[in-house]
Amino acid sequence: MKAAVYTKYGSPEVIQIVDTEKPSPKPNEVLVKIKVSSATRADTMIRQGTPKFGRLFLGLFKPKNTALGTGFSGVVEAIGSQITKFKVGNEVFGEKLFSNGCNAEYICIAEDMVIENKPTKISHQEAAPICDGFLTSYNFLKDIANIKEGQNILINGASGSLGSAAVQLAKILGAKVTGVCSAKNVSFVESIGADEVVDYKNEDFTNTQNKYDIIYDSVGTLSFKSCKNVLTQKGIFMTPVLSFGILWHSIVNSKKVKFAATGLKKTKDLKRLFLDLVDFFEQGKLYTNIDKSYKLSDIAQAHHYLETGRKVGNIVIINP
């Protein structure tokens, strides 16, 4: 089978499409023929080995895990002897972390991991990125912020994958949502439910009288210091993007500043959140915006586009 790999840190050109052995499922695994996989900003940072201190975990001089991609949607092609939930031919989606990668033609995944039957209302393209944008943002809103009905939340990067997911989820959970994005994306952010939208190039929300219970910096371009004056007394600043500043403040101001790596949560907790998302999609309450799609052979182009910071929603990789 074909798979995307990188054997050294660097630009998108370090990505190679290689032929590798098609995996066989263990007794507790299913073999999924991947139709669509995700490509994210986090993938580009891992490929670059940034921030540099992240290499303590990723590999100091070269990557320990050379595979790319975590989100997938596809069709069950074979099942192990212990499988009871899935059958050959089932359309499924989910994510597999710290693995041989989902930017590939096949993957094996255990039945009790983050995998579920794909809602019939959504396509493989719409399903593949759900565990990247929606699962991460839902973890921050529900488990970290414990967001309540009527609270005011500001979402920075509201037109991106995590941000657009957060806007929709915050509205489902009853919050009043302010989205921050560029002027060209204002109408999109309004269309997915934001009550107010700030064009960051023409308005500085940190210099207003507005106060927020939660600031969710989905893209990592803000600082706690710049935002603390617009937080309520018990307000929190949270982000999935780690930096030295965020690490420091999350230690010395742990009640006000929150960072988390969603993928490091226990599988049972991820599945709890994941199943909520499946219900929301089945009810038609959530929408996945696909900005661009690329063939697996063109994944380097996808990474180049991701690095422009101009994507609206999600980028997906399509297999023939």
TrEMBL record:
Domain Enoyl reductase (ER): 10-317
Pfam families in UniProt: ADH_N, ADH_zinc_N_2
GO molecular function: oxidoreductase activity
Superkingdom, taxonomy of origin: Bacteria
Protein name from the UniProt record: NAD(P)-dependent alcohol dehydrogenase
